[in-house]
């Protein structure tokens, strides 16, 4: 196995079990190393530190293990088994009213570059590194062995998640089995999963517990769900007894899926209406209409170099939401941008609130659910931030 040698004093993060080696920390490496290849990492004194996948970019190595062990089929099976046991321990694998969860969450499950979401028998896989993609057959086989009869299909949805310069030409498609026209359950509510054309793996599993919290606040309220995607917050609000629910997304396909999901759970219920419209245009004509507003936009910043623009976007959006909500209203506001820290997000919302002059209190501080675990050694894994605000 080829070696990467670090510069002096650049091994400290690895001794703290951080799973990334940055390109600037590398002193010497073999020029023949290919993207996705397994490499061993050594410090300047020649001490073995870790083994991982090499990749081109700022993060040069995603570490798989800090021990000198073989990376083979048994390695993948053991890691996937450990992830599954954790989901068993938190009660997500055997409920009759719930059959969807995240099975593998990258660094949080010590499998950096791999995401697997489970939907009622279908595992939707996304590879975020070339190294993981090259192991897709072994990973698919390990998933089949670990999940057994619970698994009917594995769908690889990695066309847009792999580095475009890697020249591996990935195509979305089934690695095992097949499933179509699919409906899954989350806390007793039904939803269509569009892994073929939808965003991410087809549904935003990470908002499950936050949707449940919103359900408790929805009774008799007029609710606006901005950036609704497939309507998750909307149908939880409906079950919570909302008087009226409006779902808004710029994507007509998202609005179509939202209406399908509402019909699945509340057929012929006229409390819901969906709009394919740009967010700020809709908000501009919505002053004083809503008791509860959800602001859950797509990631405004995926990289550090656009963080300032993202801050301005979150500030503008939340200022408008705070301005238009009814007195005594509640806002659920989120950021899924990894580079936006909890502290920075809260500061951004503070600035937005201060600019409105309204009295605003924080009721809850929200994050991702337990099946999206954060390794204590990798705080960057805490990507979802949310606040529930009360606006006088």
- Number of DSSP strands? 20
Element string (H = helix, E = strand): EHEEEEEHEEEHHEEEEHEHEHEHEHEHEE
Structural class: alpha/beta
The CATH homology group name of the largest domain: Vaccinia Virus protein VP39
Largest sheet: 7 strands, mixed
Give the integer mean of the pLDDT values.
93
Per DSSP, the total helix count is: 10
Determine the fraction of residues in helical runs and give it as a percent range: 25-40%
Q: What's the structural domain tally?
A: 3
What would your notes on this structure say?
- This protein has 392 residues and is an alpha/beta fold.
- It has 10 helices and 20 strands.
- It has 3 domains: 64 residues, Roll (Archaeosine Trna-guanine Transglycosylase, Chain: A, domain 4), CATH 2.30.130.10; 113 residues, Transcription Regulator spoIIAA (2-Layer Sandwich), CATH 3.30.750; 188 residues, Rossmann fold (3-Layer(aba) Sandwich).
- The strands form 4 sheets. The chain has a 7-stranded mixed sheet, with helices on both faces. It has a 6-stranded mixed sheet with strand order 2-6-5-4-1-3.
- A hairpin with an 8-residue loop joins strand 7 and strand 8.
- The radius of gyration is 22 Å and the shape is globular.
What is the secondary structure topology, with strand pairs?
Elements: E1 2-6, H1 12-15, E2 20-22, E3 26-29, E4 38-42, E5 48-54, E6 59-65, H2 73-89, E7 100-105, E8 114-119, E9 122-127, H3 130-134, H4 136-147, E10 153-156, E11 173-177, E12 183-186, E13 189-192, H5 208-217, E14 222-226, H6 232-239, E15 244-249, H7 252-265, E16 272-276, H8 279-284, E17 292-295, H9 307-324, E18 329-335, H10 342-356, E19 360-366, E20 385-391
Parallel strand pairs: 1-4, 9-10, 14-15, 14-17, 15-16, 17-18
Antiparallel strand pairs: 1-3, 2-6, 4-5, 5-6, 7-8, 8-9, 10-11, 12-13, 18-20, 19-20
């Amino acid at each position: 196995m080829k070696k990467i040698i670090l510069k002096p004093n650049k091994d400290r993060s690895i001794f703290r079990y951080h799973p990334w080696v940055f390109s600037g920390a590398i002193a010497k490496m073999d020029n023949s190393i290919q993207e996705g290849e397994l490499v061993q990492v050594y410090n300047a004194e020649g001490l073995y530190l870790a083994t991982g996948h090499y990749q081109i970019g700022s993060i040069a190595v995603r570490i798989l293990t800090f021990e000198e062990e073989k990376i083979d089929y048994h390695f993948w099976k053991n890691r996937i088994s450990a992830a599954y046991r954790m989901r068993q321990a938190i009660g997500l694998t055997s409920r009759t009213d719930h059959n969807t969860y995240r099975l593998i969450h990258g660094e949080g499950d010590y499998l950096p570059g791999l995401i697997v979401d489970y939907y009622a028998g279908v595992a939707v896989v996304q590879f975020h590194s070339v190294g993981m993609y090259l192991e897709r057959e072994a990973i698919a086989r390990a998933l089949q062995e670990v999940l057994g009869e619970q698994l009917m299909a594995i769908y690889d949805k990695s066309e847009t998640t792999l580095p475009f310069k890697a020249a591996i030409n990935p195509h979305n498609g089934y690695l095992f089995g097949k499933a179509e026209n699919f409906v899954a359950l989350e806390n007793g509510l039904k939803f269509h999963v569009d892994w073929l054309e939808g965003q991410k793996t087809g549904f935003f599993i990470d908002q499950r517990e936050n949707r449940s919290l919103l359900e408790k606040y929805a009774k008799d309220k007029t609710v606006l769900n901005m950036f609704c995607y497939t309507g998750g917050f909307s149908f939880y609000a409906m079950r919570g007894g909302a008087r009226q629910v409006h779902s808004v997304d710029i994507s007509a396909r998202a609005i179509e899926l939202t209406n399908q999901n509402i019909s699945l759970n509340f057929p012929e219920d006229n409390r819901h209406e969906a709009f394919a419209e740009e967010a700020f245009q809709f908000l501009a004509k919505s002053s004083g209409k809503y008791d509860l507003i959800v602001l859950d936009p797509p990631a405004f910043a995926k990289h550090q170099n656009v963080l300032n623009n993202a801050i301005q976007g979150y500030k503008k959006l939340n200022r408008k939401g705070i301005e238009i909500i009814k007195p005594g209203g509640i806002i659920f506001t989120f950021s899924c941008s990894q580079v936006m820290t909890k502290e920075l997000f809260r500061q951004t919302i503070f600035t937005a609130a201060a600019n409105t002059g309204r009295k605003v209190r924080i009721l809850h501080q929200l994050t991702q659910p337990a099946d999206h675990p954060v390794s204590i050694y990798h705080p960057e894994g805490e990507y979802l931030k949310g606040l529930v605000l009360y606006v006088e």
